[in-house]
Amino acid sequence: MSHIDKGRKRPGWDEYFMQVAGVVARRSTCIRRNIGAVVVKDKRILATGYNGAPSGLPHCIEVGCLREQLGVPSGERHEICRGLHAEQNAIIQAAKYGIAVEGSTVYSTTEPCSLCAKMLINAGITRIVYQNAYPDNLSRQLLDEAGIIVEHFKGSAG
Description:
- The chain has 158 residues and is an alpha/beta fold.
- The chain contains 6 helices and 5 strands, in the order αββαααβαβαβ.
- The protein has a 5-stranded mixed sheet.
- Strand 3, helix 5 and strand 4 form a beta-alpha-beta unit.
- The relative contact order is 0.19.
């Protein structure tokens, strides 16, 4: 005999995928910020990514963070970070396995930076849902110019 739980609230799609992004973020090896991203199309997960060093290289949690050592503020000098961002890793994973992401939505625990925004634009992402704001006005400007829908998710991400 099955038990029906009428009090259980089933998460909506945005909440569900943001919670998955929250779990993905737990794999992050960044000292400063743990971020997860999920690429979704037609309610199906195509790829995930979290921020961390390239595959096979020592992680920041093992060797330290140059940006932290130099006192570089958040949102600046991305080029001296040994890690890739969550959105970058998600796009790279999709490319590595031949998965087209054009027309997809990206769910990210943090708003994309301008570097990721440019990559998401060129990858053909049409919607971005993020939970935590990131101080990068150029990113917002680029995404707006590209006509990408950007939504701030205010619920729980895991």
